[in-house]
Design brief:
By secondary structure, the chain is of the alpha+beta class. The chain has a single domain, classed as Pnp Oxidase, Chain A (Roll). It contains five helices and six strands; from the N terminus they run H-H-E-E-E-H-E-E-H-E-H.
Length: about 200
C-alpha cells in the first residue's frame, strides 16, 4: 500500500472510531477555559450521554444515577437545555414523576480532548446541571424541537417500542457546577449559561 493511501485509511479509521464512540464528531473546538458559559454549552452540545441523577422513590429518597442519552439541539444549533426520551418503565422517569429534582453530569473526557490526563484533573472539564426534570408538553412546539433534537442525534430512538410509552423530558436548570481549570468551580448562572456572550467571559 502506498504511504498516501495508508495515511488516508488511517484517518478514516480514526474518524470512524470517534463517531462510533461519541455519536458525532466534534464540530466546534474547545472554548477558552476563561469563558465559563461557552465551555458549559460546548460540553452539553458535544456530549451525547451523561449521568442523570434523580431522587429514588424505591430507595427511601436515596440518589439514583443512570446513564442516559440526551440532546440540546441539532448540531451547532443547541439551546443548552438537555432533552431526554424516557419511559416510566425505567426508574429515572418513574422517580421524576414523583419528585422532579434532578441533576445531569457530563464530562469532557469521552470527547477525547483531555489527552492522557485523569478524568478528575481540573483541566478536563466537567459540568453538573441541577434543576427539575419535567415532561415536555405534548403537541407543543417545544415537543417538536425535542423530538428533532433527540432523533437527529440518536436515530435509534425512532425504533424504540411504542408500547413502552416513551415521553420527552427536559431539565429545567436552576444551578450550574462547572470545573474546567484550576481554582475551583466557575461562577455561572442559568441566565449566563442560556444566553452566553461572546468573548472570554469569566
Amino acid at each position: 500500500m502506498k504511504p498516501v493511501s495508508f495515511l488516508l485509511c488511517l484517518i478514516f479509521l480514526v474518524v470512524g472510531f470517534r463517531e462510533s464512540v461519541q455519536g458525532r464528531p466534534l464540530s466546534v473546538s474547545k472554548p477558552d477555559p476563561r469563558n465559563a458559559a461557552a465551555t458549559a454549552r460546548w460540553l452539553v452540545a458535544q456530549n451525547s450521554w451523561g449521568v442523570l441523577n434523580t431522587i429514588s422513590s424505591e430507595l427511601g429518597g436515596a440518589p439514583f444515577g443512570n446513564v442516559v442519552s440526551f440532546s440540546d439541539g441539532s448540531p451547532n444549533e443547541g439551546r443548552g437545555i438537555p432533552y431526554f426520551y424516557l419511559t416510566a418503565l425505567d426508574p429515572t422517569a418513574k422517580n421524576a414523576l414523583k419528585d422532579g429534582r434532578a441533576s445531569l453530569t457530563v464530562s469532557e473526557y469521552p470527547l477525547g480532548t483531555c489527552g492522557k490526563i485523569d478524568p478528575e484533573n481540573p483541566t478536563c472539564a466537567k459540568l453538573t446541571l441541577t434543576g427539575k426534570l419535567k415532561i415536555v408538553e405534548e403537541k407543543s412546539d417545544e415537543a417538536q424541537y425535542a423530538k428533532s433534537a433527540l432523533f437527529t442525534k440518536h436515530p435509534e430512538m425512532k425504533t424504540w417500542p411504542k408500547s413502552h410509552k416513551f415521553q420527552f423530558f427536559k431539565l429545567e436548570i436552576e444551578n450550574i457546577f462547572l470545573i474546567d481549570w484550576f481554582g475551583g468551580p466557575k461562577p455561572l448562572t442559568p441566565e449566563q449559561y442560556l444566553h452566553p456572550k461572546t468573548g472570554r467571559g469569566k
